[in-house]
Amino acid sequence: MSKSESLSIIKLAERITTEAEAYKMLEDMRWGEDLSRQSCPKCASVRKFYFIKPKEGETRKTNRGTATQRRRWKCADCRHQFSVLTGTIFHGTHISVRKWLFVIFEMCASKNGISAREIERKYELTAKSAWFMTHRIREAMKREPLAGLLANTTVVADETFIGGKPKNKHRQGRPARLGGRGPGGTVGKTAVLSLVDKSSGEVRSRVVPDVSGDTLKEAIADQVDTPSSHLHTDGWLGYRKLGRDFESHEYVDHSTYEYVRGDVSTNQAENYFSQLKRGLDGTHHHVSTKHLHRYLAEFDFRYTTRTVSDTERMRKLVDQTQGRRLSWKPVTER
Predict the structure, then answer these.
(1) What's this model's pTM, rounded to 2 decimal places?
(2) For residue 190, which phi and psi values (nearest 5 degrees)?
(3) Scanning 8, 121, 285, 323, which has its CA 20 to 30 A from the CA of 113?
(4) Residue span of the structural domain in which 129 resides
(5) Same domain for 105 and 78
(6) Inter-axis angle of helices 127-141 and 292-304, nearest 10
């Protein structure tokens, strides 16, 4: 698959009519057309690999006697056999690679995301398989562990609250008081802090226990090199003290209807929140606090890569699948 090639659902369906073609496409996206980025998942060798050609066309038999079109390779150094799925989010999957590629493309191309129930209907999967599949893809959407701190830039910080309005809850689940900060109140909701790099457009979001000054300071220090960066926020008092750690701190006072002053505003973060809530409310309807961080990774990924094509976004995602294997137990344990 060439880098200049542009994909759509129709083109993707025409491109991968068989499971073998889906494997080849995934190999091209992960390892390159010339396989220059191929490496052994066991010994990390990049020297030489052998393709194990099936005896009958593109189909081989598994140890259980079932037919498969899985493409297998052998490392010349450690003799370990592997495929493009080994050690990735696809590891151990019983779902066809064709369906994986279709769902990955849809999650990369849909601005508001796509629900597991919709994937269940469209691709003839069980509800559990579709739900787990989307979480494995979100695992690959997470920011690289070695991404580093945001430095020498201007960072826009803002917080929001995710959850239904307390006044709309059933009487037995409704809190005694609604809380402040907005007409719906914040009691019973989950706080989310987002940081937007004004130069690159990258967004980094995380769930926080509260929006006190100490909590915000710790969360921001984990992501930003404060001495070399500038901070733009609203007038929330929690930012006042931590703003002293930055090279400069400017804010707009929403209580006096000030939303923009020169280049100072929180509009970038507000834009992100509008997209996030549109997706969570309109597409997913309900997201538990336990899994909210996974959905934030998904929306962060799409927002950060919003200036590239759907094809490039998909290629970037596939490139991040290595080492992101996610098993069922950590996702479902309480």
Answers:
(1) 0.92
(2) -105, 130
(3) 323
(4) 9-141+321-332
(5) yes
(6) 50
pLDDT digits (tens, 9 = 90+) for 147-203: 789 999 999 999 999 987 777 777 776 666 555 555 456 778 999 999 999 999 999
Mean confidence (pLDDT) of the chain: 92
**How many H-runs (helices) and E-runs (strands) does the chain carry?**
11, 12
Residue labelled with tokens 């019983």: 94
In this structure, are residues 74 and 81 in contact, taking their beta carbons and an 8 Å threshold? Answer: yes
Which residue(s) pair with 72 in the sheet? Answer: 52
Residue bearing tokens 């606090």: 289
Tokens 């081989």, residue located: 60
Instruction: Identify whether 306 is part of a domain.
Output: no
Q: Which residue has the tokens 């690289």?
A: 144
Beta bridge partners of 144: none
Looking at the fold, whether 270 and 160 belong to one and the same domain comes out as: yes
Same-domain pairing of 128 and 229: no
How many domains does the chain contain in total?
2
How far is the C-alpha of 317 from the C-alpha of 52, rounded, in Å?
Answer: 27
The CATH number of residue 232's host domain is: 3.30.420
Looking at the fold, whether 109 and 161 belong to one and the same domain comes out as no
Q: How confident is the model at residue 313 (pLDDT cuts 50, 70, 90)?
A: very high
CA pair distance 176, 170, nearest whole angstrom:
12
Can you tell me which residue has the tokens 């590239």? 308
CA distances from 195 to 33, 160, 174, 292, 334 (A): 36, 12, 31, 17, 29
- Whether residue 187 is contained in a domain is answered as yes
Residues near 29 by beta carbon (within 8 Å), at least 6 away in sequence: 1, 314, 315, 318, 319
Q: Are 249 and 233 in contact (CB under 8 A)?
A: yes
Domain assignment present for 104 = yes
Distance CA 65, CA 62 (A): 5
Distance between CA 14 and CA 46 in Å, rounded?
32
Residue identified by tokens 């929180």 is 266
